[in-house]
Amino acid sequence: RKGKTLYCLAAEPGKEFVLLQQSEFGVKDLRHVRLVGVTGGPQAALDVLVTDVRIRADGFTKAGATPPPAPAAPPAPPPSGRSMWIIAAVAGPVLILLASAGAVGVWLVVRRRRSVRHAEPGAEEPVDSVRFACGKCGRKLKVKADKAGKKASCPRCAAIVSVPEIETAESGES
Fold first, then answer.
1. 148: exposed, middle or buried (C-beta count within 10 Å: 0-12, 13-18, 19+)?
2. What separation in angstroms does the CA of 5 have from each of 16, 24, 58, 79, 88?
3. pLDDT in tens, the chain (174 residues)
4. Phi, psi for 34 (deg, rounded to 5)
5. Could you tell me if 17 and 25 are in contact, meaning their C-beta atoms sit under 8 angstroms apart?
6. Least packed by Cβ within 10 Å: which of 36, 44, 131, 132?
């Protein structure tokens, strides 16, 4: 190593060193040195004899001295595109379900308020059917308003019953 450049050299016995690799390394101290050999394939053999290893440094730490503190861990990287898709795949249906439940809840509240409003006494609205019970079997019957005052047949017991007249607020008062 000279300055920022790191050189990797090798030599066979009795021959000159050959440059294997040169790369920019920076000015930080070397902490670990590994010697690695590659055979080039499963049938090849590798014999290594290390006769000389030279590591030069500007200074060494004294025995018993505390080493410098380790650098702080780098911040966690932001979520990748794939993890964002996973989050969207899970959160999307949950949000749709919540929105649907909210819409159903609003619909039920509006529906209940409308039915309460229609049941209020004194509310005038057109009558399009007449409801009454069969005089023979007691079944609840519903017929169109134009049948009021006429005869109708009970579907359960086939008795002929009279359809009552429609009572309005005006006719009930007199």
1. middle
2. 21, 5, 15, 34, 46
3. 556 777 777 777 788 878 887 877 666 666 667 776 766 777 777 777 776 666 665 555 555 556 566 667 677 666 666 777 788 888 888 899 999 999 999 988 888 877 666 555 555 556 788 899 999 999 999 999 889 999 999 999 999 999 998 876 555 444
4. -120, 140
5. no
6. 36
Bridge partners for 133 per DSSP: 140
Residues 6+ away with beta carbon under 8 Å from 33:
53, 55
Cβ-Cβ contacts under 8 Å for 165 (sequence gap 6 or more): 148, 149
Q: What is the pTM of this model?
A: 0.28
Calculate the alpha carbon distances from 95 to 23, 79, 92, 106 in Å.
Answer: 52, 21, 5, 17
Q: Which helix (H) or strand (E) holds 18?
A: strand 18-24
Instruction: Give the residue carrying structure tokens 């004899």.
Output: 49
What gap in Å lies between CA 91 and CA 85, rounded to an integer? 10
Distance CA 112, CA 78 (A): 48
